[in-house]
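Re: beginner question about structure tokens

> Can someone show what the tokenized structure looks like for a real chain? I only ever see the sequence side.

Sure, here's an example I had lying around. Input first:
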Amino acid sequence: MTSYDLQRILAEELARIVPGDAGKRRTKFDYVLPGFGERIHPSGKKSFVLQRTMGGKQRLITIGDAAILTERIAKDVARRLILRIELGQNPAEEKQRGKKTPTYVSFLRHYWEVAAPTWKPSTLEIHDIYRRTHLEHAFAGKFIDEIGHADAVRWHASLTRSAGPGAANRAMEILKAMFGKAEAWGYLPEHSNPFRGVKRNRGRKIERFLSENEMARLGYALARHRAAKPNEVAVISLLALTGCRRGEILNLTWGEVQGRKLKLTDSKTGPRVVWLGKEARAVIDRLPRKRPHECVFQFDVLPVSAIEWFWRMLRVEAGIEDVRLHDLRHNFASLAARSSETLPMIGRLLGHNNSSTTARYAHLDDGHLLLMSDLIGSEIGRKIAFQPQSRQ
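And the corresponding structure tokens:
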């Protein structure tokens, strides 16, 4: 008997003793590549398999359908699997894990489908930008349970270098929330969020307030554009006169404009009332009134883009290039502070939602708030809102 015949007989014997195959299906093992074989099902379907010992147990790994894969390709796959097994890996467990644990890319997609409808339009707009630029390819090719704390730290540090500290912090907060949901939904064990404990980049503390001369220059610049850009000028004026956030003004509807107040149904800190000084109310009175559900400010392009472009041009014209749009809010607060107003009053005027100070607002009545809005608005309006049209 030749060696060839012996190998054939052993292969046939192995095919007969595979557990569970008797009377159901049979496997013809190869006599050259140990453990590789072709499984034949009662239906006639054939598939390539690899039988190896892993973790002290005999395991059978299905390589693929014999109607799709050639024997040569299936054997190449089998050889790579054998090498991985010899290196201590367990392809069978990885395949089973893959059925239960999603990849990073697939879970990111699933998380977005579930979470995005709960976000505000402005939040969704920003998150979509971060998803496209920083998140989609962050951990491509990995399962979510393969991403550890060290991976998260390295990714955050790399993004800090490439995109800046602020962008890295915000992108990390999105992923931190996403992995938190992976725990809550049972895809990951509790307390396994890899982004928990990653140290945020320290933010730059910017305190930029406008001097009287700067406010006057800004007022003249606004006056020059009032006829050509009425919406843009009105938005900037209201931001300066009320201390509102950009989104609170851009998303304002006519139904929320109620006499001497803006009754915001939704802001960063939830529903709140913004009291209007006479100067701020005059800015709104110059605008054409529309239906309650319509936005006060409508643009041909995205409102945020329109205002950002106008502000970049305006601050150069006014000689205040280092002033951010959000600094108008800080300027409003600083003027209130210089007017000897208390921190609770300033917090209420700005719509802060700090639990440690909320209780101290109880003794303040609306009349006092309206009076303060008038005083601060008149002070800023004297310098900004009603500058005369400049001579050409």
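Each token stands for a local structural state, so reading them left to right follows the chain. The longest helix spans residues 165-184.
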